[in-house]
Amino acid sequence: MPSFQQAQSIILESVNPLPATTVSLLDAVSMVACETVPAGWDLPTFDNSAMDGYAVRAAECESGRELAVAGSVMAGDRYGQSLPPFTAVKIMTGAAVPDDCDAVIPFEEILLEAPESITVPAGVKKGQHIRFTGEDVRSGETVVSPGTVIRAAEVSMLAATGITTVNVFRRVRVAILSTGDELVEVGADIPAGGIINSNSPALAAAVLEAGGEPVMLGIARDNRESLREKVTAGLGCDVLVTSAGVSAGERDLVRQVLAEVGVKPVFWKVDLKPGGPTAFGLKGATPVFSLPGNPVSSLLTFEEFVRPALLKMMGHKRVFRPAFKGILDEEIHKKAGKASLLRIKVLRDGDFFRIRSAGNQQTGLQKTLLHADAVALLSADSSFFAVGEKVPFHFLADSAMLAEEGC
To answer: Taking a C-beta distance cutoff of 8 angstroms, is the pair 315, 365 a contact?
Structure first.
């Protein structure tokens, strides 16, 4: 039975990035580039004005000098005439700077403005308020490197430099299977003793949040035929995730059926609470995760074991959420000998994080996970954690890193 950290390492060593695919820029959002993408051309593609104002020759701009206004140029146009000495051209932001000009004076800096002339200020410098060709990016310069997550900023740069598609690691397809005779789907009538199958939609949501594509297999009943049919279908995806059926109960048949269809067991339990009955196996290169049936344990083990694997398969370099240390605001007691995942609330206190339990830690209570900002890892060799002690934790969503007091 591996430790928590050993289980994470074993899983990550067992999976590899998926093949590449070529997609449009918008379809690539949140996906990971798998090759270098060079700029298609210079950016800007021509010298253009950074301000609304007047294009001039800097050498002609002594303080108080009057320049005749020879014309104007709007964004999208070009001033194609030769500019006589001691003249200026009215210009708008983004418009091409006339070939004869080497500076732009903003409207608000002009000393005096008349319909046919302007009076210029002192200190006009060559190149001021001009965005020069290639100043941002040169043609052929790398704008996206392998391993880059495509965000709005990357889409903007790629589009601006003429790139319409990008090669990325494809999204992982994750088959999701819940097991148990007691389960009914959301919206169905609940018989006596029945339980809503909340694990499947919850795990599907977690897959979507990670950037993958969930494939819903429904519910497998507690018999070999039903399990074998569903599991076989799930093995056609990149990853199979099952919930329940891997403990020691009389009808916990998942382990047996996985072996029957050729899934090689890697480990069947983890030295962790909650989440001890978590199993991992391989059918060829296809990872198979068997998570506990308890909804809290199922989501926590997905977060700690499945999510990092999915991210690695989709080409991410950072597969774990950033780790922090928080100062305990209350005593924590647990059994020694097993690492524990504690659902916590986090408050920012200046340069520090203060943490406390998010509520009752029984795994049958989903509300505590709903209220939790983060998960703290309590080491296996300790049973008591004192007020003021520092404990490692990670947020359950990257955006939660901005947690503030009172949020």
So the answer is: no
Q: Work out the pLDDT band at 245, boundaries 50, 70, 90.
A: confident
CA 375 – CA 274 distance, rounded (Å) = 12
Q: How confident is the model at residue 251 (pLDDT cuts 50, 70, 90)?
A: low
What value does the mean pLDDT of the chain take? 93
Task: Compute the distance between CA of residue 143 and CA of residue 157 in angstroms, rounded to an integer.
Answer: 7
Query: What is the phi/psi pair of residue 37, to 5°?
Result: -115, 115
The CATH code of the domain at 4-17+171-313 is: 3.40.980.10
Contact 140, 39 (CB under 8 A): yes
- Domain 324-402: CATH class, spelled out: mainly beta
Tokens representing 206? 């977690």
What does the alpha-carbon distance between residue 39 and residue 144 come to, in Å, rounded to a whole number? 9
What was the pLDDT predicted at 406? 41
For the chain, the domains span 4-17+171-313, 24-43+142-169, 48-131, 324-402
Q: Which two tokens stand for residue 402?
A: 């901005």
- Roughly how many angstroms between the first and final C-alpha of the chain, as a whole number? 39
24-43+142-169: CATH number = 3.90.105
* pLDDT of res. 404: 47
Cβ partners under 8 Å of residue 310, min gap 6? 172, 174, 207, 210, 211, 212, 239
Question: What are the tens digits of pLDDT across the range 292-350?
Answer: 999 999 999 999 999 999 999 999 999 999 999 999 999 999 988 889 999 999 999 99
Tokens of 377: 């890892």
Measured from the Cβ of residue 348, the count of other Cβ atoms closer than 10 Å reads: 16
User: What confidence category does residue 405 fall into, taking pLDDT thresholds of 50, 70 and 90?
Assistant: very low
* Domain 48-131 sits in CATH 3.40.630.30: no
Gap between the Cα atoms of 41 and 158, Å rounded: 10
Among 90, 79, 92, residue whose Cα is nearest residue 118: 90
β-pairing, 339-349 vs 352-357, is: antiparallel
Helix, strand, or coil here: 14?
helix
Q: What are phi and psi of 183, to 5 degrees?
A: -85, 145
User: Beta-carbon neighbour count of residue 310 at 10 Å?
Assistant: 26
Q: Reply yes or no on whether the pLDDT at 248 is more than 60.
A: no
CA-based nearest residue to 273, from 10, 9, 4, 12: 4
User: Following DSSP, what letter does each residue of 112-136 receive, concatenated?
Assistant: EEETTEEE--S---TTTTEE-TTSS
